[in-house]
Amino acid sequence: MANSSDSGTDCHKASIMQFDRAADIMELDGELRQWLNTSFRELSVRIPVRMDDGNVRVFSGYRVQHSNVRGPHKGGLRYHPSVSLEDVRGLAAWMTWKCALLDLPLGGAKGGITCNPKEMSLAEQERMTREYIHGIGDLIGPTKDIPAPDINTNARIMGWIMDEYSKRQGYSPGVVTGKPLELGGSPGREDATGKGVSIIVGRWAEKENRPLHQISAAVQGFGNVGYHTALHLSRLGCRIVAVSDSTAGIINEDGLDIQAAGRHKKNSGSLSGFAGGETVDQGEVLTCKCDYLIPAALQTVIHGGNLEKLQTRVIFEAANGPVCPYTEPLLLERGITVLPDILVNGGGVSVSYFEWVQNIQHFQWKDEIIQMELQAIMHRAFDKVIALADERNISYRIAAYILAIDKVVRAGHLRGIYQSQS
Ligand code: GLU
Fold first, then answer.
1. Last residue in a domain, options 141, 165, 183
2. For a Cys staple, 173 with which of 4, 91, 184, 410, CB 3.0–4.6 Å?
3. Could you tell me if 47 and 59 are in contact, meaning their C-beta atoms sit under 8 angstroms apart?
4. Which residue segment(s) compose the domain that 265 sits in?
């Protein structure tokens, strides 16, 4: 459990704390902070769904648009029992900073429904998704706000969103990204976030002058991001010593066979009992001995309660907000490096951007082009963050925020939305 200083740290609070640390260094004035730190628009919707047993259940859904100064709002849609407006608000702001840092011409948004899709049939999930799109339909569109997958949502759900929106507006593949290939999805989108994480990890190892085959890594979370991160890293020669999902952890100091672990999870529904390693409590994966720790699931999993037990040198935030903002300075004091989410997990939205461009052009790019462009975006952002952090002697997160905030402020001035005094 988190200690008292962490308790109640939702994504919104975390995003404000991180923003403020950068804004203090940038000496941003109060008005500008208020403009950058508040949502453009927040919508809560009631989602009545006829369940398979005939009863109607009413779910709560949200879409928060943080900024569209640099382009249409952009960000995923999350289905999870813990989803709250506060979390969605913070996650939307992180999308603004992520897109700005990566130099994608997009703003920030996020959506969510408080539900447990693991206990729902596919038909129930489809009815819920269509009803949600009915609720937020006026806000989204290829030039307004473009949803995408996030925790517990996938290409099939994005296909329903495209269909539901297109029924009203005409064929509109650019309204959502992360779609199936047959419906205008992009090559490389499915594993893009994990691929992007592996590119950043590789670049960091290069900076440390350590070949990846000398590196051990633990990956917490075995959904789309965690699985593909572990798979790509193991293909690059990295030893994945631990993985976990919401039910169990698996540890093997000699390295895990990630594809076999993936097959086990697919067949049995959980990592538990995978014969390629020892099944442990899922929390142990965060505190096991490894060079690199890669949290790839939910927010605030590294906090005051497990800080002392960590046995890693570097944390790569593949999830959004896995390091509690109260704990981060203590990690840095202990000599643990943190590479921030808005850099590390930017591969997903980068390929989402390529998908959107292809939809607008009605022209499909080859996978080689996508992989090349993805690598270029990730390397460029990484190099800028490292250079600024080294030059100013600040953390990588603060450097990433300064670069991102500066882009949004400049665009705001030029659009005349926020006029500078000078
Ligand atoms: N959900 C992903 C993220 O948090 C991807 C968002 C997108 O592609 O728009 O970055």
1. 183
2. 184
3. yes
4. 192-344
Phi, psi of 324, rounded to the nearest 5 degrees:
-60, 135
Q: Are residues 111 and 142 both part of a single domain?
A: yes
Ligand 1 centroid – CA 408 distance (Å) = 18
H/E segment holding residue 74? strand 73-80
The residue whose CB lies within 8 Å of the most ligand 1 atoms, and thus the one to mutate among 349, 350, 354, 370, is 349
Which sign does the torsion angle of CA 397, 402, 407, 408 carry? positive
- Return d(Cα 23, Cα 384) in angstroms, integer: 18
Residue 359 lies in a domain: no
pLDDT at 394 over 60: yes
CB distance 298 to 151 below 8 Å: yes
The answer to whether the beta carbons of residues 64 and 87 sit under 8 Å apart is no
CA gap 17, 90 in Å, rounded? 11
160: alpha, beta or left? (left if phi > 0; alpha if psi -120 to 50): alpha
What's the CA gap between 326 and 292, in Å, rounded? 21
Q: Are residues 210 and 68 in the same domain?
A: no
Distance 320 CA to ligand 1 centre (A): 10
**Nearest to residue 106, comparing CAs of 337, 316, 407?**
407
Name the residue among 228, 211, 216, 274 with its Cα closest to residue 247: 274
Catalytic residues, by residue number, are: 110
- Work out the mean pLDDT of the chain and round it to a whole number: 96
The gap between the terminal CA atoms of the chain, to the nearest Å, is 49
Q: What is the pLDDT of residues 144-196, one digit of tens each?
A: 999 999 999 999 999 999 999 999 999 999 999 999 999 999 999 999 999 99
Pairing of strands 56-67, 41-50: antiparallel
- 80-91 in b/e form (b: 16+ CB < 10 A) is beebbbbbbbbb
Q: Round to whole Å and give the CA distance between 127 and 115.
A: 13
Which residues form ligand 1's pocket by a CB distance below 6 Å? 74-76, 148, 150, 177, 320, 345, 348-349, 352
The tokens for 30 are 């109060």
Structure token pair of residue 389: 């952090």
Domain boundary among 128, 149, 183: 183
Which two tokens mark 325? 């903002």
Q: What are the tens digits of pLDDT across the range 305-334?
A: 999 999 999 999 999 999 999 999 999 999
